[in-house]
Amino acid sequence: MFWSRLSTAVRTALVLGALAVTAPALAADKASDFTLRDMDGAEVKLSQYAGSVVVLSFWATWCGPCKIEMPHMDAMYKAKKDQGLVVLSISSDDARTSSQVKPYIKKMGYGFTVLLDKDSTVTGTYNPQKTLPYTVIIDRAGNVAHVHSGYNPGDELEIQKIVDGLLAPAATTTAG
Length: 176
Prior knowledge:
Blueprint: H1 2-22, E1 35-38, E2 43-45, E3 53-59, H2 64-80, E4 85-91, H3 101-108, E5 113-116, H4 121-126, E6 134-138, E7 144-149, H5 155-167
Parallel strand pairs: 3-4, 4-5
Antiparallel strand pairs: 1-2, 1-5, 3-6, 6-7
């Protein structure tokens, strides 16, 4: 009995250790830099947006909840881009469905940057379970400030509140 418990404990430790290596981004983690191509083939690096609040929005053309969330992401982006908000919409479509990304984005008129992650390299780094939609909010210092999995109506309000807080100028003291 002792050995079976020990064996279970060892197995549990190994599983937890493996999960730690592939765990999704957690708040307060430094955001991992990456390079992906946009819909026109240009390289985009996360690090080029240093100093901005960045929302990574993982989605796919076949994901119904993603399609419901995207107009909210676009509206937030358009309203806040002049305050330093960047939305990088990362398509998790693979080679079979990636040809549908550009026509869909153009049809919908979205203004945010769309990146293609056909081999799921970035998705695997930030969202190894590949839950969609999946949102990662990165603060101006390059730290993961918030992660959100899935979409339910009203989730956009929570995301907006977090983004607004990160975009707000630092509290300043004034003589009074």
